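Re: magnesium ion structure - here you go.
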Amino acid sequence: MKSFKIDIAFINRKSEMAGLRNYLEGRPNSILFLYGPKSSGKTTLMYRLFEQIEKEKGYEINFLNLRKVFLTSYDDFIDAFFKSAVDNNGMKTGIRRQYSLFGLFKLDAFTERMLKKRQEDPFLVMEREFQRLQKKNIRPVIIIDEFHKLDGLYMPAKQKRLMVELMNFFVAMTKESHLCHVIIASSDAFFIEQVYVDSKLRKTSRFMKLDYLKKEDVVTWLGDIKKYNKVREYTLDDRQIEVIWDTVGGSAWEIYYILEELFQHSLEDIVDRMKREKVAMTADWVDHDDIDDRRNLLSKFNQNNPIDRRNLTGLRNLLGQAVKDNILYYDPVEGTYGIQGKSLELGIKGYLT
Ligand SMILES: Nc1ncnc2c1ncn2[C@@H]1O[C@H](COP(=O)(O)OP(=O)(O)O)[C@@H](O)[C@H]1O
Ligand SMILES: [Mg+2]
């Protein structure tokens, strides 16, 4: 069977990348939280940053993606943070390597044993490592993706929440000791909100939102899929590009899906099917005992604009459920709710009419 492969391109993100680099160029002073809707490109952007910085002198950059890490106990955390590991599964980003946070730091066998036996404090081990690097004029950078996965883990003995302890540790390492830069990413709106409402964390953090691609980027991209994706079998005209934008907006993940389907199907068929799927998805979500409330909630989002949470009072539980089910997206920094992606907007419209 013929395989319809397209090359994965990285579109724009110049200003976002500049924002990250700007953070790294200053003295470590805060934790940077990268947040945004699912599949907006957070992981991809951080891998790109990692690849750039890795080649430069003067940095020691470590990337830990907790998405693929099995985390049910404190020992799993120690393994994930302190053992070298290379993941060969590959990622949908097309980048195959993945490092454990301190895999590159080469813990000596003694420290590793002590950590395992819980006779060594992992935070002290990290701090010592940062100090050692700083003495050599090397700037340590820590990137942790899907950080919220640490929730539910506890420190042995003290039974303190590991996620909270780690965050406090990072505050000390950035704002107080200026020892290392920390970038934390998460799509989990409730995690970001927890950080944001904690006044100490908020004051010691920067928040950067990564949204879907802008229209001009999508137009540039789809206008030259030969250049960006090595597609030779077909091209897209202005009308088709407009149809794609109207269907999925700047969601790169869904754009790739359409580009692959276009080898075999017409754009009209693909778009029709996607809409039907989203209508069905909406119907599934609405069809519960509180069906009227759910319908009502969705109809408020008919204009497609985000809604300030102060205009949605009394709906907290249902809103929470909708966010958990990836129907709505919550931006805790702006305090607004919106529909999770343009294709779902169409599904909701289709369902309600
Ligand atoms: N700037 C970009 N240009 C093109 N494709 C992108 C870009 N950013 C992300 N993607 C694609 O979008 C999809 C989702 O990206 P990902 O980084 O996993 O999102 P997130 O981590 O925010 O959930 C991936 O298939 C990725 O290849
Ligand atoms: Mg991700």
